[in-house]
Amino acid sequence: MAEQYMNDPMQEVFIFETSQQLEQMEQSVIKTEALGSYPSETINEIFRIMHTIKSSAAMMLINNMSILAHTTEDMFYFIREEKPAVIDVSTLSDLVFEGIDFMKQELEKIKAGAEADGNPEILTDKIKEHLKQLKTNNNLTDSQVINNEPVKEKYYISSNKAAKISEPKSYQAVLQFDEDCGMENIRAFTVLHNLQEITEAFRSTPEDVINDPDCVETIKRDGFILQINTPEPKEKLEAFFHSMAFIDQIKIVELDKTREIQEEICGLLSEDTISVPQPKEALTACLTNKEVPVNNGNQSQGMISVSVEKLDKLMNLVGEMVISEAMVTQNPDLKGLVLDNFSKSARQLKKITNELQDMVMSIRMVPLGPTFFKMNRIVRDISKKLGKEINLEILGEETEVDKNIIEQIGDPMMHIVRNSADHGIEAVETRIRQGKPRIGTITLEAKNAGGEVLIIIRDDGKGLSRDGILQKALENGLVGDEAANMTDTEVFNLIFLPGFSTKEAVTEFSGRGVGMDVVAKNIEAVGGNILVESVEGQGTTITLKIPLTLAIIEGMNIRVGESCYTLPIMSIKESFIPKAEEVFRDTDQNEMIMIRGKCYPIMRLKEHYKVKTGATAIEDGILIMLEGETKTTCLFADELLGEQQVVVKTLPRYIRRMKKIQGLAGCTLLGDGNISLILDVNGLIQKRLKN
Fold this sequence. Notes:
With 691 residues, this protein is an alpha+beta fold. The chain is built from 22 helices and 22 strands. The strands form five sheets. It has a six-stranded mixed β-sheet. Strands 6-8-9-11-10 form a five-stranded mixed β-sheet.
């Protein structure tokens, strides 16, 4: 099934578009709930989305989603048509959210290769019961608007507005899809599938929208043309097509009126030409108010959909090209040679390689907005279940990062926001008693900072208690005598240790000692780090520093003996040649150096990785000051080899399992063909602290 999902374009489109529609609906309901009433535009939007999902799920034979969407559609159709004055917004929103969650779970099953086998009966019964109550509360028990039976007629006209059905009529409909929607043939197939609910007497141009490779360009150029025979009025056909996604323009005429319209719009008819059939292209152009285009092969498309798998492969190829370019321009055979023409060509090659790399990386960049907006639901659910009043502010949602990184940071952000709402924000009574606004505020902000992105989660809650954290850490044996000398930053970072929790009562949201350690692991996995700042009684700020991309980084190559290592440029504060008299040892005999009145520990890579050769005397090498998550240390190496863009390659699994290699983030291939190990600064610092 998983393979089928990957290879079935229709199923892939269904999952992608349904997921987007559910996210859109979720955000609309959250905004609506804050208003305290459902505006007509939100009701229409939910009705349209449920109608689309009902039809598309039925087409894909996912009946449980189709049934649930149909029941929800009925409820919102009633609200749209009858406009009840009394609506329990909170209960209605709860039902919608339950439906969204159910459908998301079914989509995840399909993605995982399983069958969408969830039972929607309990939820559909709740929706029907709520609809019955809604009718009772508004004295509309005799309304005949709703038909909950799965009959063929599903595009409703209210009983008090219904027109008398006439004899069958013939219509021609020309549909223009949104310019940037892509996959027009699959959109057209969806239209044909849904059209069967109204009539089976229709034909289309193009006819074979799935197997005809040229039909996409035809639909873009001429529109999707339908000849329909049905007793339904024109207004109902228009409502039918308007309920479907990605349709931009709709032109419908009765076929017996076609010539009249042609004469009025295009002036194509005269006494000599009335009996002459007009070309289909000319008719279509008149109906859609556009000139007949000439298919000269230069049709353009503003945007196209590309699978992430193809982008990953393209990124890998660009990475290999960066390595190959370095191997050519830094070839040891060229050392000492004066090759002006070669140098000129090499500079041009490097320029093109960099531009190509930047372009590919920009294609992979996506905004953080969708990930941020998902936090609205978490805050909403916690507020309601814990009886708190919390407002979520979102800033900088347009900030972009690599798609792979977004997938990695979703869970960490969710855990932090959940803890801010559960642990941080106080109950309303407590906030009022402390003179705070009754509504707590959680701010989610993103902004660029050089080659990094900062994601800041800030709350105005009770903050972190230094003494409380230390006491809990001492009880759990996480710290010892060094606790008295720990800085606030070091103390606050204890909350990221496995099993650590200051929550006294276990709830469904937190208190089990899991979650924040996952945050730390996931952020470290993408090469980022975390900074915690807090003032007790005023609030907490957690800052996530993450790189823009994982594939290619700016690195500084250093040499230790005959070995080469690479440091991420963003971790380097400065480098300098030390003097022997500046180095001393602390009470534990660890090497230290005093720089501008501050003491910093020294780490010798030669000793850390048991390198047999290399500088031993401090004045024979160089110190590189590295800034980690909580500490700053000075790394001792033989020399700096120079700055270079490097492609990050993952270490083999058997090496990653070895404890003694802690401090390595990966490896890369240098221009001379040698391998350089990429150092993980946070891992090195933690390793040194443990030693």
